[in-house]
Amino acid sequence: MDENTRYQVLRNDEDQYSLWPADIEVPAGWQPVGKEGTEAECSAYVDEVWTDMRPRSLRERMENAEA
């Protein structure tokens, strides 16, 4: 992919993020979050919002175990 490729940020049901070329169909199990831009812009967005790398199901199990 070249530097002119536009990306979009995707998130899956486990709250994991991925960059995906904006002109390619979104794969099953992923949803766009509304952020598009260069690879650097999208990566910066993901760095800002994805602060807990654990899958959602693991976070929930850990929270329930603490309760």
Automatic annotation (TrEMBL):
It comes from the Bacteria. GO terms for biological process: siderophore biosynthetic process. GO terms for cellular component: cytosol. InterPro entries: MbtH-like_dom, MbtH-like_sf, MLP_fam. SUPFAM superfamilies: MbtH-like. Residues 2-48 form the MbtH-like domain. This is MbtH family NRPS accessory protein. It comes from Streptomyces galbus.
